[in-house]
Write a structure and sequence with these properties.
The complex is a heterodimer of chains A (485) and B (141). Chain A is an alpha/beta fold and 485 residues long. Chain A has 20 helices and 19 strands. Chain A has helices spanning 9-12, 28-38, 43-46, 99-102, 107-112, 114-117, 123-132, 144-154, 187-198, 216-221, 233-245, 273-276, 289-292, 298-315, 361-364, 386-394, 407-412, 426-429, 447-458, 470-477; strands at residues 2-6, 20-24, 57-61, 64-65, 81-86, 88-90, 134-138, 158-162, 203-207, 225-228, 250-256, 259-265, 324-329, 334-339, 383-384, 400-403, 419-420, 439-442, 464-467. An 8-stranded mixed sheet of chain B has the order 8-7-6-5-2-3-1-9. Chain B starts with a strand and ends with a strand. The chains are: A alpha/beta (485), B alpha/beta (141).
Chain lengths: 485, 141
């Protein structure tokens, strides 16, 4: 049977610019076979590796789609017109449920992921979803480390890493993605190296920057899921707000000493971080891990709760932590669970949202540039750098050096001749100090001591200064024999 | 080969992307090949044939729409030369899914729509070995 085949413009450069071809055959399949024999370059566009018509190629006999007839067995008759009609699909396929339509796993990948593939809950389909997925890790520290290790091993297709720190010795107790040889290197470099060593199939994108209101939307837009592994409130609110504005799930975790929390914030289905904590705590009230310490193993547990939730979101299986907050206590070895509800009055995801763009999160969290190291911006004259203190001591100055850290920190290192009064006891023990003395107050990093200075000034101390950067900066700039912790 | 849009086309594509936000919009670009350049003469907005709930990150132009557009173009001595679609809250770059479903020759114009506002537009063409998209020059006026 002779019939006419109409070609879409997309294929004509492969057929010598012909827009129609006369061919013969008994069925649609035979005609297509004849077509690709005559124009072999058409084959990869029309047929898949198994020789089947690709699922984005539509064939019409006259004006009937052959899918609703007998597919490639549909008989043809003299004078029919067979049209090849492209199916046009596409889009920003980050939500991964359609990944299985388009991705393949290599032999190597099939071996690598075999323990996933033999579980029906994952299988080829699930593994392809993981491969199609992209996750942004904000921070490659305590939480980011186990997240990076396990998510890359699990076969996530693209991991984005945001960090601007370098590896320090004090990181190694918990940030297991970095090793001793990495001290002094940018965290992004060592994290990328480790991830690619575990799984070279992962695409790693790095952003050597602090996440800010200026760059957050651009960076986050490129990912399916965001996992916040940072340790400060401005970033936590920034990540939350950007995720709500962009309709992305935000897998939350936080750690402190022996306790951790985790949840999934997805404002499309449940509460956001602001529903839980509408306002940040006053600066300095909640100590950071650098000030308060953290059990090194703890971020492993919480980070892997986050990793588990991310993988579940991608696979679309199980019950997610949306609307639930997990509280973990390592000393009691107990997990508790709290129900979280969406706040209808939430200014971000409530019924009448007032926040429609990113804001200044430093300001929102009460942190002004001068006070980055402490509470209500002390006057400059209330501050002293470690070098200035050293000069003063060398010139015979004899200030009282007040250490407001905890006794176990004092055991680690101290400035010579310093007096220890932990911040929490300062109110009751102020009488031990003379308000006319020249006093220099320090802690580890300068935050607690700034509060102490403010407290003492209110109590009438007139000549009291905060040592900026604390004993940590003293160690870096003046006396490296003082251990940093 | 340059894609030559009419002066009003970019705004129309951006407006379409904003109207369907947070879902993806899609449409066909009809025109003629003149000395190797693609002169786009008509935009044909299409329904996103994906199911509700999938439209925020995928688009599909139904075979029927495509078939009818091809017929309409042939009647007017034109061809379907490419397609446009939006990427809500994502960059205007082709995704792996775009690549896997792309055809050669056609121009794929992508507009990024962030928080309901249309932004950057880029234009792409599949390489003949199907391995990647290469950027395609486009202009309006």
């Amino acid at each position: 049977m002779a019939l006419k085949v109409l070609l879409p413009v997309a294929l004509r450069h492969l057929t010598g610019n012909r827009d129609e071809v006369e061919l013969s055959g008994e069925s649609v399949g035979e005609v297509i076979d004849g077509l690709v024999r005559r124009f072999p370059q058409l084959k990869p566009h029309l047929l898949n590796d198994e020789g089947q018509v690709r699922n984005f190629v539509n064939l019409y006999i006259n004006d009937e789609d052959v899918r609703y007839l007998q597919e490639d067995r549909t008989p043809v008759k003299e004078g029919d017109v067979l049209s090849i009609v492209p199916s046009i699909a596409g889009g920003n396929l980050r939500a991964v449920e359609a990944a299985s339509e388009s991705l393949d796993l290599s032999q190597d990948e099939i071996q690598r992921y075999s323990r996933h593939l033999i579980m029906p809950e994952v299988g080829m389909e699930g593994q392809k979803k993981l491969k199609a997925a992209s996750i942004l890790l904000v921070g490659t520290g305590g939480l980011g480390a186990p997240l990076g290790l396990y998510l890359s091993a699990a076969g996530i297709g693209k991991l984005g890493l945001v960090d601007f720190d370098t590896v320090e010795f004090s990181n190694l107790q918990r940030q297991v993605i970095h090793g001793t040889k990495d001290v002094g290197r940018p965290k992004l470099d060592s994290a990328r190296e480790k991830i690619l060593d575990i799984n070279p199939n992962v695409r790693v994108e790095t952003y050597e920057a602090m996440l800010t209101s200026d760059n957050a939307l651009d960076i986050i837009a490129g990912y399916d899921i965001v996992i916040d592994g940072t340790d400060n409130f401005p970033t936590r609110y920034l990540v939350n707000d950007a995720c709500v504005l962009l309709n992305k799930p935000n897998v939350y975790g936080s750690i402190f000493r022996f306790e951790g929390q985790a949840s999934v914030f997805d404002a499309r289905q449940g509460p956001c971080y602001r529903c839980l904590y509408p306002e940040p705590p006053p600066p300095g009230l909640v100590p950071s891990c650098a000030e308060g310490g953290v059990l090194g193993i703890l971020p492993g547990i919480i980070g892997l709760v986050q990793a588990t939730e991310a993988v579940k979101l991608i696979l679309g299986s199980g019950r997610s932590l949306v609307g639930r907050l997990i509280l973990y206590d390592a000393l009691q070895m107990k997990f508790r669970e709290l129900k979280l509800r969406k706040n209808p009055k939430c200014p971000l995801c409530g019924e009448q949202p007032t926040i429609k763009a990113l804001i200044d999160y430093q300001q929102f969290c009460g942190i002004s540039p001068q006070a980055a190291a402490g509470a209500d911006a002390p006057e400059e004259s209330d501050e002293m750098t470690p070098k200035e203190l050293k000069t003063m001591l060398d010139n015979g100055g004899t200030p009282v050096i007040l250490d407001v850290r905890e006794p176990h920190e004092y055991d680690i290192c101290r400035l010579p001749g310093s007096v220890l009064i932990p911040l929490g006891q300062l109110g009751q023990r102020m009488g031990e100090l003379n308000s006319d003395d020249e006093i220099v107050v320090h802690c580890k990093l300068g935050g607690r001591s700034a509060k102490a200075v403010e407290q003492m000034q209110k109590a009438g101390f007139s000549n009291v200064k905060n040592l900026t950067g604390g004993i940590d900066r003293w160690s870096q700039e003046v006396d490296s024999s003082v251990p940093r912790y | 080969m340059v894609v030559k849009l009419k002066r009003e086309h970019p705004l129309a594509i951006q407006a379409h992307g904003e109207a369907t936000y947070p879902n993806e919009c899609c449409g066909l670009m009809l025109g003629r090949l003149v000395q190797g350049d693609k002169h786009i003469l008509e935009l044909l907005p299409a329904e996103n044939a994906r199911k509700e709930g999938e439209q925020h990150n995928r688009f599909l132009i139904s075979p029927r729409t495509m078939f009818e557009a091809e017929q309409r173009a042939r009647e007017k001595g034109m061809d379907v030369l490419g397609f446009y679609h939006s990427h809500p809250n994502a960059e205007a770059r082709p995704s792996q899914f775009d690549l896997d479903h792309a055809w050669p020759f056609y121009s794929y114009l992508i507009v990024s729509v962030s928080l309901g506002r249309a932004g950057a537009m880029t234009c792409w063409r599949l390489t003949d070995d199907r391995s990647r998209f290469s950027p395609e020059e486009f202009e309006a006026g």
